[in-house]
Amino acid sequence: MKKNINRTNGKVLGSIIKMNRLLQNMSQKALSEGICVGSYLSRIENGEISPSEQVISELLGALAIEFNDSDKFIEEGTALLNHFLEELMFNEFTTSKKLFNQIELDAEKFRHSPLIIDYYIVNLAFYCTTEDRVVFNEVRALLDSVLELMSNEQKFKYYLYYGIDYAKTQYDYKEALEILSKARSFGQNGHLWYWIAYVQLENNNILKAYEYFQMAMQHYLMDANLLSVIGTYEMLGLTFLRARQYEESSEYFEKGRKIADKIGSKSYISSFDNHRAFIGLITGDLYVVFGYDCNYDFSVANSVPRSVTILLAYLESGNSVEAGKWISDLIERKVVYPVWVETLIGAVQSYDWDNLIIADENQLKALLLDTEYVSDELHAYFSQMLIRFYKNSRRYKEATEMLSTSTE
Hints:
Distance between the termini: 64 Å
Structural class: mainly alpha
Strand order of the largest sheet: 1-2
Number of strands: 2
Largest sheet: 2 strands, antiparallel
Helix content: over 70%
Radius of gyration: 27 Å
Number of helices: 24
């Protein structure tokens, strides 16, 4: 024990004691009773003092901690945690989930070692943007309690994954930018610049988004991170699409698709085809839209499914027969589709085939609400349709208000 204790600095010891105490829902008063005064324990947990070996031993005993900092475990554990984060950065969940499951087999050992903060940062990264909100929030709160005990590298990772999650789950892009800016003060990598660019784009800061996506691209190219290069090409294309510069947008989508095709990334290939088909819709080049197959995959992120784009093209061209066949085919296939697609199918029933517009204001507003966080481009498409609805109904005040909102 003496050798191990002497090799543990105050901040590491503080993090082990404090985090394990919190994990056991134990108060400082309960833990310190019979060992030391509460204020002394507080200073230990904050890494301010180095207590005697006896006090350390009694505190670890009270927490049922079998302290572990053997050279073999630290070396192998550090390598495993770093391997997980690298796989997460380069391959997302392709192999990182298996690595995480491997890490979890030694969860108690990690919690009882100097690697406890790094272990929970891995947890933070794994549950980031997932549906396991309770777990993510518990891990984040635990890490936040020992923020002052972290190294700069640990703080960088903490704020990075916290900021990413905040942007993707809270949709508060101003706050997300502040969190990511804190990460920036402790380090940088391609993912940091990518997500700063992402929140800038969501805030409609087109030029800043372009600048930061380019910075992300430089990092990804240096790291030979092809999946992230492809993803950044997609976001650059979406940046120009947001600016209604369709030619430049298509060029970035084409560049990304070429690389996706070379490495066989089916999800990215589908996403790029979705984007290019949608550009055909909004530019009125319906031949481009009908040149793609009617893919019913509604799981591809950041893009409008080609099947939906094709339905909208049938509506734009006044082809009620094919639109009806499309809906019947979707229902017969028993495809699982999201709520907003169901809303769209319902809205088609009120379609005005003379004026080529959904003629029900409530359904149009429902589509706007349902697609707000699905696709900015699809949301903008239905915004323009609602403006046309107001103009056709000679409700020019509402049309003007919608126009001013859409150009903000």
